[in-house]
């Protein structure tokens, strides 16, 4: 009955156990879809579904028609030109990591961008070579034993095609769902570590040192060791140029950021610095004067496609797979940073398809594996890029360099390239401040951040992100494995039950405990649940049961020997003393002691909480009803059911009534299906709410209620003590009997 | 106010939002233990704690004094002798897998048993060699390049000591907690697969074929291939002997099982068959007559201990670790089968310590790695073994064979050993029937069983159980990742809300939806939650908001141009028609369209669900309040908060009030700490129960309640429709205005 009266919550209905409720409100028979049904729906074909799939395969069909020409084009042009120049510079720099001529790095920054323009779903990432991927491809090149340039180019291109095939296959098989496991904390930790990896990988260009390439775990330390051992060989001219450029870039970027709304377009500082640096280097002939490393001889034009080498494929399947996964993971984590910032949808599978096709095309035309570079994507986004139009324009810049003006870059110092790349890492590195914030908000997320960061630094990007994902999934298990268990009590004398430790004024019916478990119960936490429950009630039911059964044996023995006489007034123990050997009861079968207590054959009842004859001692318990609040228990697996049942049996066998409240109907059905209920544990233990169970207990126990003794509601006292009329009670006359020595 | 009146549930209180409740019932300030506090408690020393640790290190101190001499001793003696004989037979058989003389298999069946007697916690498993472990040790022996017997013995003993050290270290570091991840379904699937592995490993002895040892994944298939390619070479005498023994053993075991309660002691059929087989083989000289493989020359006595080889250790750290883990996992999973059956506690860490010490001692005295054999443990338990007294007696039998009567076994056929081992696998293999039962009970558990079984068959025992554990943990993630989401409705017209699809007679207030999510919300399921919620309400809030904002722009434009006149009666649109270009609104910034609707500057209000002027169309929604039941949401991680907030914002911005009910207080505190609330999403959205929220909505919306129109309670109708007075309403005069064309 619902009665809205002002701000009043008034309910009057009968007390509902689950059975009573089901009796009154019949459920409908519902057909639940089987796994086969789901499969059928999934595989069903319709023209609409086909259209949707076709559209999702070509994201350009969605975003290009919605392009805001007037507002976005200028930004995209500025961004495209800036990104294009960085692409050129990075493409050349990273080609050195692969150990192929600079021109081939430009291919890697051209073909995949064109493909991504049509197939990609991120609007802000810049496709092209990525230092870590380049290093991994370089390792394959070294492993292949290639010596001439053309062999090296062939090895890099072959492995790139295989990487693309893997990515395409993963995308088509819809394995891109892995991206839902990349939480914000994980991505933040991973990209911060990746930024440090990039920083370290660029150090050798800034200092102009020769560092061998390492790909295995701990490579970052090996690179640093190699750098520090030869720190004295640093080319001061390169270092100074790099530092000057770095400082200028930082300052101008800060200005761009601060006067964002006043500047029509961010100052294209990378472009300006590159032009100046190339000019100065050429004008003053830095190469011969200071022995700095410059880009050097640039070839031009494109190469014809060639079929990849099967030998390289077979020898490097594992490497290709890890490059495919790392490339995708890096690109996707960077892309998702921007998609969160700018609030649009990324599709993991479509990204995989876009990268896969990009790498296949790129590899066939002799480029090497591409993904996205953190720094270059930073350029594209921070210079105002709105869509992949910027990406397309950057590819056109790369095209111009490839076919026409490449030679202009010949005098450029490599350290300038490195400094420009570093200038964009600030944002990623600043994520360190996340740690403190996360620690305050959520310890688990903070630990995920730190773990992923350390794993990525130590193990490298591929293994690091894998370790991070596994660790993160384990935290979900941990969170449910050690659930918060609490004791509830009535607060405010109505139907509200809250954690008893939180409120000073609580009302707890005597002999009743309410225990709440706030997670599903399954194999890994049933033990924890049991321990917490035993701690909450303060005793082990099994121990009590054994003690009672031992005591019962003694009483039986006394009775058999006629040493225990029953009078209407009580028991009289007639013999002198009990022998010690009787006390030990060594040969009790443990199994017997765990059985329910059988007293129906005795001519008297036993109240275990009262005094017992002689030296028979049984721990007294002040609990007659236990309410388990299972409203958070969303599932129980079959492994834990046995444990749960033995817990319930334990309490029932020592005459503690157990009530389970707040369960989902499906859960009860499942328990029934699994044969959970029997003579001892019955399905009548389920009640709808805690309050229903409390009221039921109240009625059952016939408590004397001193109702309305006081006028004030809060003062109302309820006598909830147990009716304890002596220890042993004569079954027939139901008169309390006393025990005498 | 609690009023128990018969079977009545009567509650009368005010409607509580969380804030109102907190206002009325002040919470206590509680000190929550920090991680440091927990660590301190964990490290605190006390004499009681010390005593407890000391006791747990020597489980014998607990169970030996409680030994039921009269009842158990006879069973233990029978079991000990039977097991001892099987130990002897298996020890010799498995020594062949390691490629050392049979005597050293007897050592492996002796030393660890003695150690386990003092340190072990399982009462039923038989310690000693295990075929898979023996094969793994054999692989190390082969890898070490040993040629002479003494070199091979040394290699096996050395690796065994290292295995023991790993196990001991894991036990002392309390890493035995991994055992809580071994669920019943996993153990059942794993032991079934292990039984098949054992079966296959024994085939070569039964058929008397020479099969090389394989250890890598797929080894079971390689062994089978090897057997089938040479099946014609089968020694028929061996096969026939094995089959006869197998059939007799099966039949007698069936008799033992069926007449369990009538037989004083199970018939020791293994013992009888061994004696007969050895006698017959000797008497008829099977070896020369049928060319069967016999045990052959037995040495006797013990060897002096020697220090292990460091070279073997360094070369095989990985192998030693996997042997340590597999050995423990196998033994523990078998032990837990019996501990569940006989209901006693196993300690994972203590088991590790016991096995570790056993292997260290065994290895120093030139035995090889031991664990438990499924079949031998089956013998020990099924012949009535009650405690490790049986294990001790079996060691004494082994001792007798080692020092005295070993030579008697020389004529015994190896195929007899194999047949006896197989005779005990029936129980394990019968676990196949579990699959059907599990499928009916719990799909997840069934899939875990099948996965673990297949992984163990295909990958071998070590990798198989690891894959099973990881898979099983992923199922926990999956279960919470795709939670059951349901729409609730009032059932029975009181304060009870259930799944609307389950009941034919439900009551749903118009314009109100109640959505329940039954799992924590975190990074991996926030997307799922959002999709389910959108499906449940039937529209995308963001889309509605954009449409409304576009419509508003049009109305503003009309108003600005003076084409919209406001009269007390309504709007009059004065111009002829709207240009098409106005319709497109190409240059809307998407960001703007997602902002909250600002209409305060307009001289009228807009009712979006009524008709709008001209061709302006906005989807109508029949939802004004959304209640999210979060009683099952035990935690929300920081990654998902942003998503949750954007969902709430989406609804609030289109004037749908959102209420969250049933949350834990801690969760709200955490949201506050993470800066979840602002001007839009306020902390006043929390209510104690669904019913509180419903009553609050009721009051807020000023519904006309036709109360007590009918006498019968169930017939009571509540008019819950929305008060819709026309499309645009003049703000100043609050008089409904009509739209005219």
Give a quick summary of the entry.
The structure is a homodimer of 741-residue chains. Chain A is an alpha/beta fold.
Protein model, in words:
- The structure is a homodimer of 741-residue chains.
- Chain A is α/β, with parallel strands linked by helices and 741 residues long.
- Chain A is built from 31 helices and 14 strands.
- Chain A has a 6-stranded mixed β-sheet. A 3-stranded mixed β-sheet of chain A has the order 7-8-14.
- In chain A, helix 5 (69-98) packs across helix 6 (102-108), helix 10 packs antiparallel against helix 20 and helix 12 (236-258) runs parallel beside helix 20.
- The longest helix of chain A is centred in the N-terminal third of the chain and has 30 residues, at 69-98.
- The radius of gyration of chain A is 38 Å and the shape is elongated.
- The interface between A and B is large, with 106 and 104 residues.
List the helices and strands and how they pair.
2 copies of one chain form a homodimer.
Chain A: E1 8-14, H1 18-24, H2 35-43, H3 47-57, H4 60-63, H5 69-98, H6 102-108, H7 111-119, E2 127-128, H8 131-143, H9 149-172, H10 184-207, H11 219-229, H12 236-258, H13 269-283, H14 286-290, H15 310-315, H16 317-342, H17 348-364, E3 371-372, H18 374-382, H19 388-405, H20 414-422, H21 426-429, H22 434-441, H23 443-459, H24 461-481, E4 485-490, E5 497-499, E6 512-517, H25 526-537, H26 541-560, E7 564-567, E8 570-573, H27 580-584, H28 590-593, E9 604-606, E10 625-629, H29 638-653, E11 657-661, H30 665-673, E12 686-687, H31 690-701, E13 728-730, E14 738-740
Parallel strand pairs in A: 6-10, 8-14, 10-11, 11-12
Antiparallel strand pairs in A: 2-3, 4-5, 4-6, 7-8, 9-13
